[in-house]
Amino acid sequence: MGGQPLFILDEDAQRTHGKDAQSSNISAGKAVSESVRTTLGPRGMDKMLVSDDGDVVITNDGATILSEMDIEHPAAQMIVEVAQTQEDEVGDGTTTASVLAGELLTKGEDLLDDDVHPTTIVEGYSAAAELAQDAINEIVLDVDLDDETLVEVAESSMTGKGTGDVEAGKLAEVVVDAVRHAKSDNGVRRDNIEVHTQTGAASSATKLVEGVIVDETAVHDNMPTSVEDASIAVIDTELDVRESNIDAEYNVSSVDQLNAALDAEEGELQGYAEDVLESGADVAFVTEDVADRVASQLAKEGVFVADSISSSTAKDIVEATGAKRVGSLESLDEDALGHADSVDVEKQGDDDVTFITGGATAESVTVIARGSTEHVVDELERALNDALDTVIAALDAGGVVPGAGATEIAIADHIRSEAASIEGRKQLAVEAFADAVDVLPRTLAENTGLDAIDALVDLRAEHESEGIAGIISEGQTGVVGDPVDYGILDPAAVKREAVDSATEAATMIVRIDDVISSS
Known about the structure:
Layout: E1 14-17, H1 19-37, E2 47-50, E3 56-59, H2 62-68, H3 74-90, H4 94-113, H5 118-139, H6 147-158, H7 168-182, E4 183-184, E5 187-188, E6 193-199, E7 207-209, E8 211-214, E9 226-235, H8 255-279, E10 283-286, H9 292-300, E11 304-306, H10 311-321, E12 325-326, E13 338-348, E14 351-359, E15 365-371, H11 374-396, E16 400-402, H12 406-419, H13 426-437, H14 439-447, H15 452-466, E17 470-474, E18 477-481, E19 489-491, H16 492-510, E20 514-517
Parallel strand pairs: 6-15, 9-10, 9-12, 10-11
Antiparallel strand pairs: 1-20, 2-3, 4-5, 7-15, 8-14, 9-13, 13-14, 16-19, 17-18
Helix pairs in contact: 1-3, 1-4, 2-3, 3-4, 3-16, 4-13, 4-16, 5-12, 5-13, 5-16, 6-7, 6-11, 7-11, 8-9, 12-13, 14-15
């Protein structure tokens, strides 16, 4: 080589390594975590997110905030992925997971400054995460998951979120009713519960419909707006004159030829209408277009038809009514029809929507979320979806635990009690994990107006003497008490997932000591 330098990277590539890389990554992760920290708890604040196009989102939902932020730093993106994983797995606890990940990074940075090796930190955090899971299992409440308990779970999830002019407790009852309707012997099918948003009324008008709602309405003004005991067809083909797949010119040289062509076209359209009528359907949902002449003929016979419905809407109708999707009218017969108690067109705000209620396979339900503005109804939709997910998680994934920071206090206490049995520097990382978990009750205390240090001391003392202690929001401040007595409950699955996802993200970032970016 003659002593000449060997260039491996492109000259425009940038490389950061060693402590500089670790510091940069940890700082980016902490910054993202801090951006959602003030939204935690019943007294959490909202964020206003404004896009380049001027679109505005107002929310305190952690997953929404992080997904709307324009984040470029790769380490910061990992925190966003933590929130997304939490949202995908259990539907709630995204802020908890993000804040915990950020605090684990903060404590990890302190350990790095004290010359604790990243691998030791990872091993200690992993051991602490296992201890945390043990603590969660020990604190799961031995209670029946009846409607009253589930309402408390749903209400806890929505407290502090934008619910317009209606109390979270009223919405929680709607949520639990929806989950109960969608519950079967195999658990709750989340896909059978839809949240339909509509502006033009107060949030207190939010209600549950046993069925599905379709935005499309009848294609002809003379069609009925209400059909009782409906036989429903779902058709995946166009009810219009078929067009040739090749370019062709037709030379019409006489009036007779023109009339023959028109008669053939009319006959084709008439045949479509007759096929629908002969099947016995009095309601048809078509994913393609329906010709005006077909619609007119069916209107005369009192058949309700909606066209150009989406594939997902067709799927919802099939699941609610038991209909079979047919790709041709030749396949449309009585066996392919679904059934519903009624199909009704109603005005919601400025729009007409179609209600399909009492379907033959009716486990499908729809929560109609109302609000006076788009911002209100969007935030209400997020709150309802979170509440639905938390109730389902409580039913299907391991019960409930005390909320209000009580579970986190129990986790930190259990980890500290076990840390002494861990040898070497790994013990420092285990203890640091316990200190990081304290950020959650500490943040709840700050957001309720309490002194964070005093509140943490009181929480530990109360937990030591009573076994359960959390931060309860009362009026303009907070008190230390038993969250179970106040009906503040969280799904155990939310806590488990938050610990796992936050630990994985933090350990991944701590291990990075080299960042190479190309131009």
